[in-house]
Design brief:
The chain is an alpha+beta fold. It has helices spanning about 1-15, 55-60, 70-80, 85, 110-120, 120-125, 130-135, 165-170, 200-205; strands at about 35-45, 45-55, 90, 95-105, 145-155, 160-165, 175-185, 185-195, 200. A hairpin with a 2-residue loop joins strand 7 and strand 8 (about 185-195). It is globular and about 50 Å long.
Length: about 200
């Protein structure tokens, strides 16, 4: 099961970096400000991360950036999210290096243009492409979402037993992340918060 999940995350990372997000099979969750989702999959020497967060958590607004100040805020946020090492810290002993990363904001003009081209635009076109949009709460009317993905390759994966989230230090509006973890030992889920940023894979299973 964990292999399937890592493959799915890797597929999203590879295809979205194009950018052309692959069909997303995640279940849509309620769009709640302050609360995001992080899927982690560890398999062999590969570690995949899939992060989704409401726009308000990251840039304090949920519309297309229009003013120069908003554009600067969005650019800065995307630069942070595009750097996996600012979001997660892996054990140095594991020797992990970033292989791929991407970041999208659903209210970006280029993102809207992509969906206009790929899916026919508007909600009428979306009904024919349920998979990607079903898992994309950022496409709900009035809501916006950030979606970031990272893939690491680790030279000593046996030492990849813990990680620390830098996410909350970067984004003050973020309150929690619903974290789902899949490793060779099994799968688990818990909430990471500002007071709980360290993840121990062995203890979580």
């Amino acid at each position: 099961m964990h292999c399937v999940k890592l493959a799915a995350i890797a597929a999203v990372i590879v295809s979205a970096a194009a950018p052309a997000p692959a069909q997303d099979r995640r279940e849509a969750g309620a769009h709640r400000h302050g609360h995001g989702k992080l899927d982690i999959a560890i398999d062999g020497d590969k570690a995949g991360f899939d992060l989704r967060a409401p726009g308000a958590d990251i840039i304090d607004f949920e519309h297309a950036a229009s003013t120069e100040k908003e554009k600067a805020t969005l650019k800065a946020a995307k630069e942070i999210l595009a750097n996996p090492l600012k979001i997660v810290t892996l054990p140095e002993a594991a020797g992990c290096v970033v292989e791929q990363s991407f970041v999208h904001y659903t209210k970006d003009p280029e993102h809207a243009a992509h969906h206009e081209k790929k899916h026919g635009g508007g909600h009428h076109g979306e009904k024919h492409h349920g998979g990607h949009h079903d898992g994309h709460p950022g496409h709900q009317e009035g809501h916006a979402e950030f979606h970031a993905g990272y893939q690491f390759t680790c030279l000593a994966p046996e030492k990849l037993s813990t990680l620390t989230l830098g996410y909350f230090d970067q984004f003050q509006n973020a309150l929690s992340l619903q974290v789902s973890i899949a490793t060779a030992k099994g799968q688990t889920q818990f909430d990471a918060t500002r007071d709980r940023t360290a993840i121990d894979f062995d203890a979580s299973m």
